Amino acid sequence: MVNQPETSVRKGSSHVDRSNYRTVVMSNIESRALKLVAAVYEAALNAGYWSHAIELVADEIGASGGALRHMQLPSLTLVNMSALGYDECWVRAYRQHFVALDPFHRHFDAFPIAELGRSDMLVNWREYRKSEWYNDFAKPQDKIHMVGSTIARGSGGRVQIMFQRGRQAGPFADDDLRLLKRVVPHISRAVNMQFRLCDARRYETMVCAALDRLRVGAILTDSAARPFFVNRAAEGLQGYCGLRLGPGAIELEDSANTGRLQGMIAAAALTSMGANLDGEGEASFETETGALHVSVVPVASELLALEVTAPAACAAVFVSKRCCDTSPWRRLAVQHQLTPAETRLARALAEGLCVKEIAERYLISRNTVRTQIRSIFDKTGARRQAQLVRLLSNDFRGGIRKW
Predict the structure, then answer these.
(1) What is the per-residue pLDDT across 114-172, written as a single tens digit (0 to 9) for each?
(2) What is d(CA 315, CA 226) in angstroms, rounded to the nearest whole number?
(3) Comparing C-alpha atoms, which of 301, 319, 300, 159 is closest to residue 231?
(4) Which of 78-82, 186-190, 249-253 has the lowest mean pLDDT?
(5) Phi and psi at residue 367, in whole multiples of 5°?
(6) Do 325-403 and 214-324 fall under one CATH topology?
(7) What is the DSSP pairing of strand 117-118 with strand 145-154?
(8) Is the Cβ–Cβ distance between 349 and 332 less than 8 Å?
(9) Could you tell me the pTM of the whole model?
(10) Regarding predicted confidence, which is higher, 189 or 399?
């Protein structure tokens, strides 16, 4: 006798309440799907968890095997594969030979993302049973019936998920497909999340490596001046002029200088939460042991947060010994085609000196100073001393604001 599903019968009647039965079945499917979705998103954060997630889904639909594979097209190169229920020798055989004979991946690839295909609906069963794939790969492992989907596309590659059953278990049932239709879209999102996280981690590594190569000290902080990234050059400046980079906020030897620096950082970080770059500031902090030059700029946090784990409001702080500015000035001289005399005068302007003070420092006439200033303005495009200082400051940072 064939077992019939339980149904509810109205009292005093033989009428079967089929709508209620469907509600119970769908509710059961939704409940099972929710448990699987939680495991799927756990795998998005931990790639090593995918095998367990695939196993959970396979158990729910009575599959004897499953695989999540990343393929490169059109070469059919298998980039990566998390397999369940396959001996390692069969995985190796698939990678080396059978991937080109697989009759299903092209069918899956023709479907929209996360749309399911079942083997008995995709291939001519009589022809399928004559194929090398069936006789030398599927049949020896008793993985006759399959259901699967393409869950991600991009850069010439495809990610597909599939589950298999043996001959005795038979094709996947409609209820199995209903469950998979609720879970597979989440698997698709989880895989794409994992790709983006991997890209972000690679980008973070590149950004941090580039910052570490700078000769100037670079520090990324939140609005309270607490560093979340410090490059090697900045670490090397710890203790110079009393500079301290943690464990709390950035501090200097003098409390007044500390308050001034932290105020500059807060103003920069909170400038439209880093969305625009108007909160810039520069200062030199002098002590008996030397002088520390500091430049603070806001950072567009909506961009930086993709690469580095950053607070909503953040700033970049560049620190250097003031006496070490010769190399940037040499680069600026080449960039703007300044003569040595004009470069020397531009540095004096950047310090805030007036025409009289420059003339006295370098023992030249004021007319000579004015002539050189006009030449500097012509070459740099500046029209006022403040504009020139800002231009030179931007050049020193070498495109930092593009972050």
Answers:
(1) 899 888 888 888 888 999 999 999 999 999 999 999 989 876 688 889 999 999 998 89
(2) 10
(3) 319
(4) 78-82
(5) -60, -40
(6) no
(7) antiparallel
(8) no
(9) 0.54
(10) 189
Q: Which long-range contacts (CB under 8 A, 24 or more apart) does 376-384 make?
A: 376/336, 376/338, 376/342, 376/345, 376/346, 376/349, 379/336, 379/337, 379/338, 379/342, 380/336
Task: Residue 319: name the closest of 388, 399, 245 by CA.
Answer: 245
pLDDT interval class at 311 (50, 70, 90): low
Q: In the numeric block, which tokens belong to residue 86?
A: 């396959």
Amino acid at 230: V
Q: Which CATH architecture has domain 19-196?
A: 2-Layer Sandwich (3.30)
DSSP 61: H
pLDDT attached to residue 310: 54
What is the second-level CATH architecture of the domain 325-403?
A: Orthogonal Bundle (1.10)
The string of DSSP codes covering 309-366 is ---SSEEEEEEEEGGG-HHHHHHHHHHHT--HHHHHHHHHHHTT--HHHHHHHHT--H
| Pairing between β-strand 227-230 and β-strand 217-222 as defined by DSSP bridges | antiparallel
Mean pLDDT, residues 60-68 taken together:
90
Domain 214-324: what homologous superfamily? PAS domain (3.30.450.20)
